[in-house]
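May I ask you for just one protein sequence along with its backbone structure tokens in two labelled lines?

_____
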Amino acid sequence: MSTATAIVLGMATVATADTVTIYSGRGEALVAPLIKQFEAETGITAEVRYGSTSEMATLLQEEGADTPADVFWAQDAGALGALSGQFAVLPDGFSDDVLEIFRDNDNKWVATSGRSRVLVHSTERVAEADLPQSITDLTDEKYKGRVAWAPTNGSFQAFVTAFRVAEGDEAAKAWIDGMIANEAKVYRNNGTQIEAIANGEVDYGLVNNYYLGRYVGANADYPVAQTHFGAGDIGNLLLVAGAGVIEVSDNQENAQKFVEFLLSPTAQQYITVEGNEYPVREGIIPDPTLEPLQTLQEISPKVDINAIGDLDGTLKLLGDAGLL
């Protein structure tokens, strides 16, 4: 999996035969500059295949031992858990700098950033008194036809998996059925939900914390805000993006170097500033637009991120409900 290449860095040319193949469920617009920086710092050429996290996870499962991938960089912990059997155990001490809440108990993958599920809402049509205290409140009549969701989105599916783990399959099914009965409107992803609120199509949406910042950054008067539910509600789920080294890869050293780079202060600061996400290690300047991580830990439900790997069960639940 290596080809002779030459990388030009300023005035210097570095010859190398090193490559690493990355399957990325993270968007190219955000992570491509970071991968280029990895190449510049290490002299390793990254061969990247982009797609949704679910697409990449399915591809890895289909390819099995024949996969050319060395690293899987996923958008959510659900996919990481589902694929943990295909990951190599990382060296002892590899995750020592990662905050304990973000670690994989089996040391098969590392979190690269944290994110929170939030409720986005119109600043023009929603009063503070109209904000629900629980995500289950959204099945009430007062919210009928006013709520957006994205059932095909990987982070939403990780949330549903966590809902199942925390409160049981029947409770998760009852909520999904209640949302359908309450005419929740389906959108493609997080961003289209936010845009639908701004356009007056809906008043509420269920997204990850970092999307709204991109719109507000471009327009300080953007008519959408975000909030959390009451403390401990499953709607405040703390999720992660993360990466694992493929066990059958014959390129373990370079794969580990890439994952290690994602934990470096440089990469962590980039993801925090450019991605509006939470760093997974100490010493990183926080995003001033986000609630402190400590606050997030206090209001998030107590769900072990290592326990949300049953993606197949969630896909069946959503499929049976007619959402996939």
